[in-house]
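Lab meeting minutes (informal)
Scribe: AK
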Amino acid sequence: MLRAIDDNNNSVLAFNAVKGIRYRCPECNSKVILRKGENVRAHFAHQAHQLSCIYQEETLAHYQAKYVVAQQLEERGYTIEVEKRINHGQRCPDITVNQQLAIEIQLSNISMRLLKDRTHELRALGYKVIWVINEPQSYYQKIKLSQFQSACIDSYERKLFAWSEKQQSLIIYTQLQHIGGQWFMGQSEQCHSERVFSPIMQTVPKLYKLSYRNVERYLQYCRRINSVHEPTLEAMYNLRMSSSEVATYCGYILPQQLYVASHPIAWQIQILYSCHLQRFSEREFIKCIKTRYFLDRERNTHELLKDLVTQYFTLCTALKLKSVQKSY
């Protein structure tokens, strides 16, 4: 554990503790031992025979993440509480800063229900909440995020914090954009814990276009479903579109794509199909698109889809796709 109680009933972080002073567990009030040295991260430990304490065990990675973040923030003069029990002991955020910010370090996936409940409870107590996830799988500038991980994105500033066990540091991902499935584009860099307070100047998101190879890969995924009613393939068949034509008119990553969980090809080809049938309506479009959930806000679906449609129609007009121009 990272904190204990001294003889003056003060909460003391392990890296500030002094050997020779008696410390007690904040949970069971029994004596704990300070372990601190050149090759050992400072922490408190129960004596071997004390097995009744309800203090939760944690992984080494989780402990190290808390240790580094808490120490860096305290060195900058912030008031830090580690594992402080609040709300009558019902909630214990990993780190609280100046009694205003709660930092939760979650290095494994949890259910969306638990994620929402924990976040809403801390907010109700007056805390701003920042989640730090485990360093995700990446490939060059592409990042793979689960539903839980993507929900932790700051959707206003398009940023996300993760813990790198290899670098023993926080990683910040910026300029995030969804490009299909679980994959996102973004910039990453090692950062100091104080960066969690630093706002990022918002810029116009880059416009990406999926390559023919990536389009074909998605179409192969659709074919493996092996159903004549697969929506993308059904639209392709009725539009008499080849794979190369799909790659030309679909696969544009518009700024609002971050807020959409549906694959860009899936919703774009449905717009083309609806326009071909001359029965495009926003209500029907909503049925074939899935928006993404973020902890920091819930987007206005109507405005989001309106912006998406407007920008996509503008692109199609520039590409001189006649069926879309006429319907629009």
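Next up, CB showed the second protein from the same session:
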Amino acid sequence: MKLAFFITAAVILLAACGQSSGTSNDGRLTLEQAPTDVAAIYKSNCIRCHAIDLSGKMGDVTNLQYVHERLSEEEIIERITNGGKTMPAFKERLSEQEIAALAAWLANQQ
């Protein structure tokens, strides 16, 4: 009986170790592990230009897969809020809380 318990516990622990933190094996950010609310914001506002895989394959649109290596959370908030080069400003479309949640997810990938 004790052996069955330990085997079950070991299986559960090993399964938990393999869960993703939101990035692929190569450190690339993915949408799959984003919090539900953040994924919804991204799908409603960002996907058209930055693509489902965050690659930004449309013209000179920024690839977001490694944005956490290039920009701080504050810089991402600024970019989403006020736009940049070809990116429109989202301060009229998204609340400060939505922008903050999206920026936190983009910036805090390890």
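CB comment: The CA atoms of residues 50 and 56 lie 4 Å apart.
No objections, moving on.
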